[in-house]
Every structure is written in structure tokens, then in C-alpha cells.
Amino acid sequence: MPKKRTRPANAPHTFAFVSVNDFGQVQQAADRRLIRSHCMIGKNKKRPDPKAKLSKHRSGRSGENEKESPVAPPSDLLLVKFVKDIDSQSRKLLFEYFVESKSLLYPRELGVDYECSRSSWFVWLSYDMGFFQSVLLSASAMVDYKTRKPFSNATHQHLRRTIRLLNERLSDDVLVRSDATISIVLNLNRLAGYSGDEEAKKTHNGGLQQLVHLRGGLDAFRYNTEMWIKLSRLDFGFCLDTRQQLSIFETEPTFWDPLFDYKKPLPSENPIYGIIPELSAVESIVDSRLATIFRDLQYLGALLNTAAVRKRTIGDRQFHEIVCSIQRRLMRLQGTLPDLLGECFRLGMLAFLATLFQVPRTPCSYPYLETRLKEAYQSIDTTPDRRDLLLWLLMVGAMTVYKPDDPWLRDRWLSDVSHSTWPEARGRLQDVVWINAMHDRPGRQVFDVLSMKKTDFFDLSG
């Protein structure tokens, strides 16, 4: 029986080709396994037996000058064959960018499990020049932004090349509908946000709206979790930043049923997180849809707090399904609520959602939300049964859009919030909705400033 031929360990790896559809996705299971096997080359090797190694050393069979030098398995980026050759410094820059961009989706404190390996990026980097160039642009701009410097010459060169390649593919009937094209525009949109170029940002928003419409709406991207998250996040920021009433991508109907069974307590090792408290102020809210959304938001907070106590994470898709549903319903309610308290509560929940998104920002990055929330808060009556809700509204506003040293905010804090210690205030905030790992630190700092225990404030943009 002939022996099975094996490739020598030091033989160079051959290239393998896989087929993708018009949207740049690998369709065949065999092709996905092939990509996975290539990415795992050098990673699942059997570790040598330490006893055998020691015995070999004692036997003297190995020369004294022969030393074993174990080599760490390469990262996925080192295994990627880029569409264009780049030097080691550029590879390092790309690696740092991918690590950094992962944290831009969710703060680590949230405990959301995000798998970068599921991204289509690595496939696109191997054959799509336009996408590859946009990633180089984003990586270069990231360095400029972190050092708080204007865009460098290298960044401007990458920008010109990216725009040229984007214009070429927009005239192609196939490429214009691809996921990679939308990712390029998303990268350009984020870049415009970093640089404060509102005109470019407006142009990219309009382009994305047309591209998403060509594909059938936002829900057409549910198969690509990362892109779905990014588009939803962009939509959310756009609505809070402008007077846009509805989603720029919205094509699907909105469902108003609750997401959870509130009568069923959450399983928890700490009973405090297994019970969702009733909030007396909610009873006076006229619109039942808003009350349902609030209970869903409370349940999400309890879910995250429970996971933190048990040192577990929740999946990014599950988290985003919940957040996206709450976000959509809150935006749909704009202009439909019959009472001022309901509108103020709706805006407060939008501000709360904004605290969950770690994007480079200043406290006033949502001017429309800032103006509307301030107007709504100053228009409602402050009654004793609303004291916890008022505390929560002022707190989330100060963490998101207000400046805690604004005179009006200090005045309302002194008049509407009874004098208390931080532990007492924190307990009241938890009775509304509060994610401990995410909100305790900034919340304590806001509390100290508004309570006149500190005269300075922290930087939310870091």
C-alpha cells in the first residue's frame, strides 16, 4: 500500500481560491472550512512533552549549541495575503486599527462578546482594492485622531485614493450593491465625523441611504452582524444629531409587543438583579407603548448586570437585537406622545442608549437631543412621586449631552434632587435603569460635580 504523501513542514503554502457572491460573501461550507484551515495553520500544533525534552537534554544527544526557539503562532493578519503588498509597519498599523475598531462597537464594561473573526473584512482585504485602501485610510486617520493632530499627508493621500476607487465602483452595477462598497462609505462617514466635516458627512449619509435602499432596507443586512450594527448605530446618531424624525434607513414596520416576559425573574446569583422594580412615575405615563419600551430597557439593564455578577458575557447579536428594537420604537414615537412627561422620558431613554455606544465624542455631540431634552425637562412638573425619575433624567443627560457645570442644570439639581449621598443616589438610579459596570464611574463624577463636591469635570471623549 503506497504511503500517504505529506508536504514537508518547511514547504511554502500554496494559494487557495474561494468563490464569493456579488456581495463579497463566501457561500460554500467547504470554502469557509478552507479559509478557517488556512487561518489556523501553525496554531493547533501538539505541544512537546516536557519530560521527553528533559530526557533528551540529559542524554546529551543534542549538541550544546543547538537550542530550541519556539515561535509564537502568527496573528490572523500575518496570514492574510493582502490585495497589495505592504511593509511590516503598515501591517502593524492595520493590526492596531482592527484591535481599536473592535472596541468602538461596544465598551468592554458592557460585557458584550464580539467576535472579530466573523467579519468579512479579512476576505475583502485579499481581493478588494477599494476596501483595502479605505482601511488604510481609517488606520492612518486613527493615529492622527489619537494624537489630536490634523490629518497627515499620508492620510490625505489615502483619502484621495479611496474616493477615486469608490467613484469607479459606484458606476459598476454589481459593485455598487456589494457589502464592501457600503463598508467603504461607512469608513468615509466615520472619518468625516472625526474631522468635523459636516458637509462630507451629509454627503455620505445621503449616499448610504441610497445604497441601503437599493438592497431593500436595513434589515437586509441581518446576515452580516457587524455591518447591521454599524448601520443601525449610524442611524441612531443621525436622528439624535439632527431634526430627522424617523430612521434614514427604515423600511420595515415597527412592532410594539414587549420583548420579554416581565413576570419571570432573571436567574441570578445576586437576588437584587433578579427583580425588576416598579417605578411609580411610569404609572402616570399615558402611552402604553412607551411604558412597554421602558420595561424592555429595564430588563436589558438587569440582563447585563446579571451577566456581570456571574462573570459572563452576552452575545453581540442578542444585545443588538434588543437595543435596535428599543431604538426603533423610541424614534417612531417622536411627535406622537400626548404628554410632556412622556416625551421627556422618551428623550431620556434615547440619552441612556447613547451611553452604551463608545464612540469618540464630546458631551455635546448630539445637539438636537441636547436642546429637546432640556426643553422637555424644563416644561414638566416636578412632583414627589417623580423624584427618582427626575434624578435619572438629569444624570443620563449630564453623562451624554449636558455640561454638568451649566447653571440651569445645577439649579434644577438643587431644586429637584434631594440632598443625598452617592450610595443613596446610586440605589435610586438602579430602581430606574442603571448598568453598574458602565455607569458607576461617570455617574459618581457627575454626582460629585452637581452636588458641589467637585468643581471640575472629566473628559468624556477619551
What would you call the structural class? mainly alpha
Number of helices: 18
- Please state the average pLDDT score: 77
What is the count of β-strands? Answer: 2
Describe the structure.
The protein is an all-alpha fold and 462 residues long. It has 2 domains: 166 residues, no CATH class; 164 residues. Helix content is 55%, strand content 1%.
Give the topology, please:
Layout: H1 29-39, H2 50-59, H3 76-79, H4 88-105, E1 112-113, H5 121-125, H6 129-146, H7 153-170, H8 179-195, H9 198-214, H10 225-241, H11 288-309, E2 314-315, H12 316-332, H13 340-354, H14 367-379, H15 387-400, H16 407-416, H17 422-432, H18 436-450
Parallel strand pairs: 1-2
Helix pairs in contact: 4-6, 6-7, 6-8, 7-8, 8-9, 10-12, 11-12, 12-13, 13-14, 13-15, 15-16, 15-17, 15-18, 17-18
Region (Disordered): 40-72
